[in-house]
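Progress against Task 2.4 (sequence-to-structure conversion) is shown through the following example record, which the project officer requested during the mid-term review.
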Amino acid sequence: MVNRGRRPRILAAVAVGLSGLVVTAFLIVQAFRERPATAAPPMPAPGASTPSEGAVPAGPGIATPLALPPSVPLRLDVPRIGVRTPLMKLAKNPDQTVETPPLRRAHEAGWYRLGAAPGSQGSAVIIGHVDTATGPAVFHRLGNLRPGDRVNVQRADGRTAVFRIDSVEHVGKNRFPTQRVYGDPGYAAIRLITCGGRFDRGSGHYTDNIIAFGRLLRVGGEEAR
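Structure tokens generated for the chain above:
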């Protein structure tokens, strides 16, 4: 049995409670409205990759690696070893191995056009012969390069990409570091390659490769950071 005399007091209490909830909800909404907005971190664009290990991430006050848009390289100069050569374009042989310059043009080096252009992000690969049956070829002295030496590449866009040699390595062809040579290191890199080691008369080839690894230092006087 309901006590009718208590009903108004109960309804009044309920009304007061609802009013309190409304006021509380209003204050919470106001607090969110007045709180300073913070931007959500941007989502990467479709197909974009995350920075490679060792790459410098972009951000306020942080320099990104120097790199240029692609442009065909025309000439290679390596002052330390007296190299001044035009660059021919190389691709792949029918068996999918990388082309080398024809022996009749052994005094010239070639750029692997299926890779990065010198100055663009990625590994720009330049290949030259060490010698021929008649004498030294364009990269005969490649093994004399030292860390800190400069390599200049003149490009079709009128810019000269200047690289600094980081290391010069002598490796067996059966241990060729394919990923280090052709992979993208996250910056504008250059790789100069020739033959080395012992000449195998049975196969008609040298047993080793000499590889100079370098990175872009400056373009048009702008130093890479």
